């Protein structure tokens, strides 16, 4: 059994190095949509067709288009996928499609403990994405849409590993002892396969063990702050962020962070509801 586990881990790392990590068939439509949206020459007709073929994703697109984040004042209610696409734009649709790919990777997990970890890790990712949007908008002044996308993908390696561990009993226990390096290798490979922009991938891979610079600035600090105040923690053993006394004081006392922690904006709450639906 131990030899089988080691062999499975070796094969997984080999696929990561060759960028041939397989996705389950149930994500094919969302994956094609995600890849099409990442293509600068994509056609609107193809986007509409792919979105309509994924009912759950279509419903989330319409719901997000009608959320406080995108429906301002007396904006008419969106009732069609085409109108949702026009209101959200391709960048926000890319975030939704990528979220669908990542989330659906774990829908078939049979082991109850691994399934619970996957659900918690996805909830953590969603809260980080929503909080990162608010932190980017009000504190670090990076692009809020980029911050949302980065939050969605920042734990993709862990979610993929949980799905893989479900296929080989004992693999997760083996992974626990070497989680950090495996997460980095698999996470990098997945982000390349998902065509994650370089600035997002660079920020994500530098998160383990990193510390927030004061005053916080940039995408990495945005994600680190969001992870620090997220109400749902990652269930995976990872290298903790470095927190010195000055940073801890900032986390505990900054009024903007305390407001986000205790009373998230309506935009954040609705984004969390859409992504967890």
Automatic annotation (TrEMBL):
Gene3D superfamilies: Hypothetical protein af1432. It comes from the Bacteria. SUPFAM superfamilies: HD-domain/PDEase-like. Pfam families: HDOD. Residues 23-210 form the HDOD domain. This is HDOD domain-containing protein. It comes from Janthinobacterium psychrotolerans. The lineage of its organism: Bacteria, Pseudomonadati, Pseudomonadota, Betaproteobacteria, Burkholderiales.
